[in-house]
Amino acid sequence: MTKLTLGSYPHMLGFEQLERLLERTAKSGNEGYPPYNIEQTSDHSYRITLAVAGFAEADLSITVEDRQLVIRGRQSDEDGDRVYLHRGIAARQFQRSFVLADGVEVGDAIMENGLLHVDLRRQPAEQVVQTIKIKKG
Fold first, then answer.
1. CA Rg, the chain, in Å?
2. What pLDDT does residue 94 have?
3. Among the listed ranges 8-12, 73-77, 80-84, 108-112, which one has the minimum average pLDDT value?
4. Taking CA atoms, which of 3, 9, 26, 96 is between 20 and 30 Å from 109?
5. Are 7 and 15 in contact (CB under 8 A)?
6. Cα-flanking dihedrals φ and ψ of residue 110, to 5°?
7. DSSP string spanning 9-56?
8. If DSSP codes are grouped into helix, strand and coil, which group holds residue 73?
9. Hey, where are the domains in the chain?
């Protein structure tokens, strides 16, 4: 069985980067932790909310790497002298990745009640019409 790619469609030119992006997203390895929501807050804005109970602002990092929003969490190990009889609250590191389309910019990041909100804004695409002159050969 042959794998179909965007390059195998002759009318779709220049989409190799999109194909690589889809492959990278499929391999990103995001598991179910921490849980998150994505909501559309207006026609041109979105909000990603991650449940990060137990993490302080200093334990979290937010970066944009090659059109990919990456949110990482790593709690400091200050529990060395504690003795737990039961430990049901997850205290593990995580990495969540979200692919950003062209024109999507990361805005504010807000911590509130154990939730991390990251606001995104998409700039509306400018409609461009270009006329190409035909030269005589």
1. 21
2. 93
3. 8-12
4. 26
5. yes
6. -130, 130
7. STT--S-HHHHHHHHHHHTS---S-S-EEEEEEETTEEEEEEE-TT--
8. strand
9. 8-122
Instruction: Give the integer Cα–Cα distance in Å for 104 and 108.
Output: 13
CATH 2.60.40.790 holds for 8-122: yes
**Residue 95: pLDDT band by 50, 70, 90 thresholds?**
very high
What contacts 101, CB < 8 A, 6 or more positions away? Answer: 67, 122
- Cross-strand bridge partners of residue 116: 50, 111
Distance from C-alpha of 91 to C-alpha of 53, rounded to nearest angstrom: 9
Question: Quick check: bond before 34 cis, omega within 30?
Answer: yes
- Decide: pTM greater than 0.70: yes
25, 70 contact by CB (below 8 A): no
C-alpha to C-alpha distance for 127 and 69, rounded to whole angstroms:
27
Q: Which residue has the tokens 């195998």?
A: 8
Question: Can you tell me whether residue 59 is helix, strand or coil?
Answer: helix
